[in-house]
Specification:
Layout: H1 5-10, E1 15-21, H2 28-39, E2 45-50, H3 64-76, E3 84-86, H4 95-105, E4 113-119, E5 136-139, H5 149-152, E6 157-159, H6 168-176, H7 184-193
Parallel strand pairs: 1-2, 1-4, 2-3, 4-5, 5-6
Length: 205
């Protein structure tokens, strides 16, 4: 698990991709996004950075310890596992803090280039101007357009081919209805830990 700038250097990658989110829960759409970025050789590796809360969303459903455990299972499931790295939630915490840190430490990265990996739907008017100063790899959903990116991002960016997306909201709804998580090892973890599904009703007396 990445917990210090020195470990970023030790990865031996020139272009470092940073993909952040609440991952509540992580799912196959996150995995497709990371694999699309790596498959297009836009970055040499992806560092996955879970954070506690997205102000645009409701409070998280499960604690960070569970989300980290599920992310570990998601990354192990990938054909690109050797180029996917999980970041300690206490390091580079939060998108804005991460951007400040990357901008400040960039001269010390010895030629490495930090890139933010984002789904197209996360890039809206009002996007954090600090983040916009970093180069981006943008992954659109099937059928979504890319107009207006030049008005949101002030640094360079590349756009990958689209992916069939999923969402944590959709996965939570499926789980709440008694369905299955699309990644088997994560589904087993969710069932073992009793996450996302309603507590079983027990009649008393």
């Amino acid at each position: 698990m990445i917990g210090a700038s020195r470990q970023l250097l030790d990865l031996g990658a020139r272009r470092l991709g940073f993909f952040s989110g609440t991952f509540d829960p992580p799912h196959d759409g996150h995995l497709r996004l990371m694999e699309r970025v790596l498959g297009g050789r836009h970055v040499d590796c992806v560092v996955v950075c879970p954070h506690n809360h997205n102000p645009r969303k409701q409070a998280n459903r499960v604690d960070m310890i569970h989300r980290v455990a599920m992310l570990e299972r998601l990354l192990e499931h990938s054909q690109e596992a050797a180029r996917l790295f999980l970041c300690d939630p206490l390091f580079l915490h939060g998108l804005q803090n991460k951007a400040f840190h990357l901008i400040s430490c960039e001269p010390r990265l010895h030629g490495r280039e930090p890139w933010l990996v984002r789904g197209r739907d996360a890039l809206r008017p009002g996007y954090c101007p600090v983040l916009a100063k970093l180069p981006h790899v943008v992954v659109p959903r099937d059928g979504a357009g890319n107009a207006g990116l030049q008005d949101i991002l002030s640094a360079g960016y590349v756009v990958t081919t689209p992916i069939a997306d999923n969402s944590s909201t959709n996965v939570r709804a499926i789980l709440a209805a008694g369905g299955f998580h699309p990644v088997n090892t994560i589904d087993q973890y969710i069932r073992t830990e009793g996450l996302y599904r309603p507590a079983p009703f027990s009649a008393s007396g």
